[in-house]
Specification:
Layout lengths: L20 H17 L1 E6 L4 E3 L6 E4 L2 E5 L7
Antiparallel strand pairs: 1-4, 2-3
Family: Belongs to the cytochrome P450 family.
Protein name: Cytochrome P450
């Protein structure tokens, strides 16, 4: 608990799997479903920022603007 963070956010695997991995995945799924039900459209709010990597092309940031669907609580 006192060591500095490394920025690694994976859940691990095998004997090193995170004890909270299943609940974290369930929470993320619930959040994304609730959010998707309240959004009509997503549009770019700026250019994507890519991570420098030789093998895997991935984004570090993807700014988006959400337009509420009009159902449920406001965003």
């Amino acid at each position: 608990m006192t060591r500095p963070g490394t920025g690694h956010l994976a859940f691990g695997s095998g004997v090193h799997v995170c004890a909270g991995a299943a609940i974290a995945r369930l929470e993320a799924e619930t959040l994304l479903k609730a959010l998707a039900s309240r959004i009509r459209t997503l549009t770019p709010a700026g250019p994507p920022v890519h991570r420098p990597h030789n093998v895997l092309r991935a984004m570090a940031h993807l700014p988006l603007r959400a337009t509420p669907s009009g159902t449920g609580p406001s965003l």
